[in-house]
Amino acid sequence: MLKTVSxxxxxxxYSEEEWQTRVDLAAAYRLVALFKWDDLVFTHITARVPxxxxxxxxxxxxxMFEEITASSLVKIDMAGNKVEDSPWxxxxxxxxxxxxxxxxxxxxxxxxxxxxLNGIAVSAQxxxxxxxSQQSIFVLGDLGYHDYEGVxxxxxxxxxxxxxxxxxxxxxLRNHGLLTxxxxxxxxxxxxxxxxxxxxxxxxxxxxxxxIPIAQGIIDTAQEQSRVATKGQGANLVWPGLLRRLDxxxxxxxx
Length: 255
Prior knowledge:
Elements: H1 7-11, H2 16-34, E1 44-48, E2 56-58, E3 74-76, H3 92-104, E4 110-114, H4 117-123, H5 134-140, E5 143-146, H6 158-165, E6 170-173, E7 177-182, H7 185-206, H8 216-220, H9 222-229, H10 239-249
Parallel strand pairs: 5-6
Antiparallel strand pairs: 1-2, 1-4, 2-3, 4-7, 6-7
Helix pairs in contact: 3-6, 4-7, 5-7
């Protein structure tokens, strides 16, 4: 049985900034479970501890995503070693990918990786993500691809992964899944929603008739369209509502 602790007792152990990061990251894990993007315990979302380039938060390996709380997240260093007491281990394959991205991209706080059926199916298609939906246009102008090299356990894969991501916000891991990055956890989550939805739409469309591609000129202006559509708020427009949804279902992610 998971230990129940009060939010106040847990929060007192950390700075205000780190606690907020923990709450947002725990919320992201719960939302991944809610949207059914989880793969048992085998994918990961990481967040940089505020003010640090060396410490990160990751899921306790073996805990289901709907069980994760702010206080249960494990703090690790760049090598994946725990830097504070936790009864839970860390998945080495999980942090191979995440450590490479965090080390190369100091502009981002959060890295999200999923193994969804839709994402893996499209990642196995030679043509990758197609420009056939409104959702896809926001992804395609900011998307990289990384070829499959087996389970991500080897450090020598890191330079190739970092090269393939470059300055993009979305990375399709061939035959493997999807990855997004964000300046905040909210931003990484919203990007994953667009990525996953684009893949789901593509698979359904491919089951029908001839596809209608979207012109490159429209894709080239997608980021400006996004800023106008969200009134410049980006992920901050939807994140509070997502948290309210979690609060109505089970607010224990905050503990």
